[in-house]
Amino acid sequence: MSVEELTGDALARACAAAMLERDRASQSLGIVLEDARPGWARASLRITETMVNGHDIAHGGVTFTLADSAFAFACNSRNEPNVALQASISYVSAVKLGDTLVAEAQEQSSKGRTGVYDITVTRGGGELVALFRGVCYRIKGTVLGGAVT
């Protein structure tokens, strides 16, 4: 099937997979793309010893990176390249060594060249550990064909 024939969920999964394939930062942390649909994505990460800070909890930047990656997978899901314009996170609960985190990104708005996405980060049985909001900006090109800034 050619890129031109992909639509809906298949296009979203192909775009998210392409983003992860080029994302060496997410790969180096072990971030896993679990699923993607238009305007939505889910990714996960297991907290390892190299991700724990001086308080013996996961470094906040690791949680932020997981949420940011899910944000990227969701906002690039329609083969229109987007980059982060603004992002913020609120940490709700400490994350510990061995925890598996799941970030679920959901589009809230997409108008013109910007989009707003909310990302929840949970652990285990769905306990909330962080809330992330990202605003993206659409750039030239296509995700599957390469972005042109």
Largest sheet, described in full? 6 strands, antiparallel
CATH topology, which one?
A: Thiol Ester Dehydrase, Chain A
Helix content: 10-25%
Number of domains: 1
Distance between the termini: 28 Å
* Order of H and E elements: HHEEHEEEEEE
Alpha-beta content class: alpha+beta
Radius of gyration, in angstroms, nearest whole number = 15 Å
Query: Could you say which overall geometry the principal axes of the C-alpha atoms support?
Result: globular
Please tell me the overall pLDDT. 94
**Unreliable stretches:** none
Contiguous helical run count:
3
The second-level CATH architecture is: Roll
Highest-level CATH class = Alpha Beta
What is the strand tally? 8
